[in-house]
Amino acid sequence: MRMKEMVWRTGVHERLLRYYEQQGLLTPDRLPSGYRTYGESDVETVRRIRCLLAAGLPTALIAQVLPCIRADGEHLVPTCPELLAQLRQEGERITRAIEDLQASRAILDAIITAAPSEGAATLRPPQPAAAEAS
Question: Which pLDDT score, from 0 to 100, does residue 116 have?
């Protein structure tokens, strides 16, 4: 199938499909004219890429993960035991990022809570004193 059909089938823009190719995630065939052609398996590959991106994995890790996963119903299952350690590390990185965001949110909430109520006069920066008339 050509690029337009691949876009239609996957819902992924042409630019992203080319990016996936540049990152080594997708390897379409090329016609003598240079046009890309995709197979049925490429549709599934793009779905897996999107799933792994949604899980927070960077494309460099996805390039390592793709050859080591298979579909089991609606779930992706790792097939390379050495991959599990990397996935666990990535899960820990994501957990730390979530904790950092939660701490940031708590600080922001505390600042918002400390603000004067809606009806109260708001604080204004001091105004320069008016020049005295002589």
Answer: 86
Q: Which of 61, 40, 62 is nearest to 49 (CA)?
A: 62
SS (H, E, C) the chain: CCHHHHHHHHCCCHHHHHHHHHCCCCCCEECCCCCEECCHHHHHHHHHHHHHHHCCCCHHHHHHHHHHEEEECCEEEECCHHHHHHHHHHHHHHHHHHHHHHHHHHHHHHHHHHCCCCCCCCCCCCCCCCCCCC
* pLDDT digit string, tens, across residues 82-100: 888 888 999 999 999 999 9
Q: Which amino acid is at 132?
A: E
